[in-house]
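Worked example (supplementary).
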Amino acid sequence: MTRLSQSFPADRAALVAFVTAGDPTPTDTGAILDALVDGGADIIELGMPFTDPMADGPSIQEADIRSLAAGTKTADIFNMAKEFRQRNPDTPLVLMGYANPMTIRGSEWFADACVDAGVDAVICVDIPVEEDESLGDALRAKDVAVIRLATPTTDAERLPTILNNASGFLYYVSVAGITGQQQAAQASIEEAVARLKAGTALPVAVGFGVRTPEQAADIARVADGVVVGSAIVEIVGKYGKDAAPHVRDYVKSLSDAIRAAREV
Amino acid sequence: MNDLPPNSYRNQPDERGHFGEFGGRYVAETLMPLILDLEKHYRAAQADPAFEEQFNDLLEHYVGRPSPLYYAERLTDHVRETAPEGKGAQIWFKRDELNHTGAHKINNCIGQILLALRMGKTRIIAETGAGQHGVATATVCARFNLPCTIFMGATDIERQKPNIFRMKLLGAEVVSVTSGSATLKDAMNEALRDWVANVHDTFYIIGTAAGPHPYPELVRDFQSVIGKEARAQMLARTGRLPDLLVAAIGGGSNAIGLFHPFLDDPDVKMLGIEAAGHGLDKQHAASLAGGGPGILHGNKTYLLQDEDGQITEAHSISAGLDYPGIGPEHSWLKESGRVDYDSATDTEALDAFQLLCRTEGIIPALEPSHAIAAVVREAVKMDRDQIILANLCGRGDKDIFTVAEALGTEI
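After joint prediction of all chains, the assembly is encoded as:
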């Protein structure tokens, strides 16, 4: 938990970088994770591939298919996390995915595996607050943060429900839709972040549809974190086994823009 | 519902949408406010006599209800020819294939489009497997003048061409889904993706008694007209209740619609029939027989999956049963022991399809053909004075191409 809270610098926004575990194969993920860090990512979201990723757009769907076709198992994903943690004791690792792969062996099993692998937090796309007990209790008991999502459909009445028992950071899904599609208007992001920050002391990270360094910088001026996913996954899709240096360069362009964003 | 005994099998789900450990609301946060709003509107509709009146009026004058209860005399005789002395139960059918659009699906679509109108939604989406739910949805959208988009797996589009044309005639847009196995589950993924991007104006008419709460409950309630009618008709015709109910199960909406009004009749046994495809040891669509509990498409229920919780591909000759999950109430009814579940293979369903054509002059859909296969199996073991009531939930016109191909016949 401390590793996660320390990763949001006071003077700039954090860069949260997403990549699908096991894409294109389980043996390639280690180099890609290191490339994210080299490029300047402050927090890594490691996506657990799922056969039916119904909140994801085509880019992440295809990454999941590539990973599963390469034979990625849940045990492989925890091994990737564990090996990364041995190389890198500081960068927080957030597992992101869907309820079924996370709960199939029981929530206690999953929480123990997270602790064992050095995973700091979990985002489960299809476990809303209403079903929190199917995963959240076990994670919190082991000090693994449960990241909550707020969306454009989250009104003032619902926000306290989401914030109850939230930890780590608050993830603002800036578009009502699936990953990797259009980006929200800057004005609506600014309005939403201000509203969310009035309700919580947790850092607020903004994602969905962020692709260019300019977009990242705009968000970095108002939010505590910028999440980039599909654009990175597309680079992995394009370059496959040779993706790591390309990922590093792209992430560096985002990181440079975020670092310069508040200097103006 | 308030006058049910405390040990009733009809008092599910709880206020959070759970049927025992099953059901629930496993959706992305973006959808959660909408799901809560839908529940609020459904409760208001339940309390509004005008809603029930409009629903019943449309069922009577537009759908053509009540559907007949029919004693299948020649099928019964056929079974008795090979049954042991004194065996061979009477076989009765609830004729929901005679509904407008040719299946039970329309009952639910009428209910849901009335809800959509109450909520002020202006666009309808739906998923479909065999195309029956797609046709029923396109039908009510034409009737109520709402634009309609139907998501259908590319594989299913190939094997259900007549229904694609029907949907288009009715003014619907049919979106071909090529992801995953390109069947019903992938169509549902794509419908959920569309919904999450269009929550402000779009109502999702889910076709089976599955998905996030309150869908399993409201679909069951709308389909329960099947069991309510059948119970009253059977009492009026024979002065007694049936000994055994049989229905085919994909998601399980026709089965829960038939079973639910009988659940508190202890002497009525029930049998749900899943699709065993090529066989339970090969590729099939029998989630209860060959799967385990998991979370998919908004609910916790039995799923076909591997040890990591990845969903495995289902197979059935019947596109309407080709789904790796099942409605959560069936998972609960299985675990509670109130309903028995069994399966029938592609081959058994094909045999039953032909048998009903020849003995009763009824061309059944491949979905209820699975139930008919089980009816024949059970009838020979039961006494002659016993009664089996099966749901003939769809007609088979849409399936003649699939059947012809399976039988090696050119049309």
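Two points are worth noting when inspecting this output. Chain B touches chain A at residues 16, 24-34, 179-180, 185-186, 188-189, 192-193, 196-197, 199-200, 294-298, 300, 303, 305, 307-311 (CB under 8 Å). The mean pLDDT of chain B is 96.
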